[in-house]
Amino acid sequence: QVQLRESGGGLVQAGGSLRLSCAASGRIAVIDAMGWYRQAPGKQRELVATVSSVGSTNYADSVKGRFTVSRDNARNTVYLQMNSLKPEDTAVYYCNARISPFGNVYFGYWGQGTQVTVSS
Question: Cα–Cα 20 to 30 A to 113, which of 9, 34, 37, 103?
Answer without folding.
Answer: 103
